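Exercise: predict the structure of this protein bound to magnesium ion.
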Amino acid sequence: MEKYNVKQILALESYGETITVEGWVKTKRGSKNVAFIALNDGSTINNIQIVVDFEIIDASLLDDVHTGASLKITGELLKSEGKNQTVEIKASEVIIYGKANPDEFPIQPKRHTLEFLREHAHLRFRTNLFGAITRVRHAMIFAIHDFFNQKGFCNVHTPIITGSDAEGAGEMFRVTTLPLDIPPKTENGTIDFSEDFFGKETNLTVSGQLEAELAALALSKVYTFGPTFRAENSNTSRHLAEFWMVEPEVAFADINENMDLAEELLKYCVKYAMEKCSDDIDFLDSRFSNEQKGKPQNERSELGLKEQMNFVLENDFVRLSYTDAIEILRNSKPNKKKKFNYIIEGWGADLQSEHERYLVEKHFKKPVILIDYPKEIKSFYMKQNDDGKTVRAMDILFPGIGEIVGGSQREENYEKLKTRMGEMNIPQEEMWWYLETRKFGTVPHSGFGLGFERLLLFVTGMGNIRDVIPFPRTPKNAEF
Ligand code: 4AD
Ligand code: MG
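Solution:
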């Protein structure tokens, strides 16, 4: 006998066929003579209805079947008369794999808060919402590899343990096997890392970019897609200590080609989600609308989830210099009325998420790509513009999110890069290998990093980044 998953069964038309299905009970309802079980196995957001006729199955068998129980059902596929489904299964055999005592099982068929579900992350996959998010997350992983593969990019695995701070931001998690209570010391009293596992200081990577650049300077078009770790203590709805980043790196490409690539990638992913995950996106879209109703008027999103997605697909992203953005922000209402938490006084200010979202949601009402930032607020590797003040950075800002992509054209000139590293106290001896690529066959090249969970915030309409990764890692939280 053929074994089908629920998604396959819902598409069958072979009425009368005897089939088997396995899954978890979503709900059970019924009367004296018959019970209806909604069964789900995670293959789709939709359930298969199981009809249990007590003339065929002993009614007492279902006494222990409640939401969350796992079952194996064999029965006949029937055309359904119910209005929410096309087929149902009339059970001839019901096998209980595992019960779920309703007095103890936390995931009952009612509305749970997202906070409650985070505390039950081991079971939240069982909800419709986290089933949908998990499937969309999978689809987005697949879409990203598909996109780059079609374009002839080579995927490279960059190291997770590194000896360098790629962003120069110093927000790293140390990796060590030294005993914390009695670490070996050098003669002048500092910790002797030569005794450590790798014979030097190491940490978890904050970005695969620097190594991706090495590969791009031979394979021309590469990308990494891996876990990234940042020990920044920002307990926000957009930051994780462990997140996934997509980082393409392209030789012979300038900032404009970089922007084109990023815009195309984002549109590809959004389109892919709408086309390949339509059931889940429909579900998330109605959830999003319900969420909005509970918010105060001024915090409500003007567009629904699918409307937002279409909006991104249909519009060219606005491309604008940092300098122009500062002018817009300086003269904006919230700045003049001191509504921003950080008032923009003038050129040089670092943009906060409130400013990014103002540009996208209020001013342009379109995704925005900002370029040519002051070199002081950006990383050492960005290509310096001729004005001596700005670098060829690009950040992509999205509605509801703020920065979703950060990237740049890279400084390919050996002397300029070396000088900038000196100015920014980036240890040149440790980074000798990075500098050597500018000594041997250097070429103009560009790349960017897309925060994978931020992309997921956009396509799922979720408001908190902790809900788009199965097991979030945030300050003071590493349960599960
Ligand atoms: O802007 P960032 O720091 O850029 C880099 O790391 C570059 N090396 C990328 C490159 O050019 N190859 O990070 C890139 C993106 C951000 O735009 C944001 O979407 C995401 O990574 N991101 C985070 N996502 C979740 N939690 C955090 N703590 C994040 N920090 C950055
Ligand atoms: Mg950034």
